[in-house]
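Worked problem 6 (solution included).
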Amino acid sequence: MAKSNKDYFGLSYIVSLILTIIPITDWVCGFITRFQEGKIVAGIIRVIPIFGFIIWIADIVCMVLNGRILRLLNV
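Solution. The predicted structure is:
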């Protein structure tokens, strides 16, 4: 898969925003996206319920303001 500046598998901003607003799809797509980027720990943190909820809220804010999901751990 080619690298893209768009989140969630290279989908458009509107589709990514819709996927971000729905909690389950945000957690699953965020988990998969982070694993594809090679960020294993960041992917695992996204599926832990309390962290997943906090990151979900942050993802919505970041997607609206920046057009990208939250990149908490970039290691």
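Discussion: The two ends are 21 Å apart (CA to CA).
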